[in-house]
């Protein structure tokens, strides 16, 4: 049987874990946030929209740690491959939206660094 102090300790660890992960962006959340960019990223004739740039900027602002960045990089790299994202469009997105991203948007990027 778990004692009261052990139960409180476990509860405290769970709360601390939840708080530390509160700012992390899940993969599905990141992909959903970037839906306004999908047409631009897969359609060579589509125009870049303000809503895409706003979404990309907001997502960029939500990534705070290296772990979050690595996870997001892997997530978006896999999503880009499955959605057949046009690499040159992905690479140009930060510049066109006037945002600085810590990792190049490139299908060949090494997300482990």
UniProtKB/TrEMBL annotation:
InterPro entries: Bifun_inhib/LTP/seed_sf, Bifunc_inhib/LTP/seed_store, Plant_nsLTP. Residues 1-24 form the signal peptide. Residues 27-111 form the Bifunctional inhibitor/plant lipid transfer protein/seed storage helical domain. One of its GO terms (molecular function) is lipid binding. It holds the Pfam family Tryp_alpha_amyl. The keyword Transcription regulation does not apply. It comes from the Eukaryota. The keyword Hydrolase does not apply. Keywords: Lipid-binding, Signal, Transport. Belongs to the plant LTP family. This is Non-specific lipid-transfer protein 1-like.
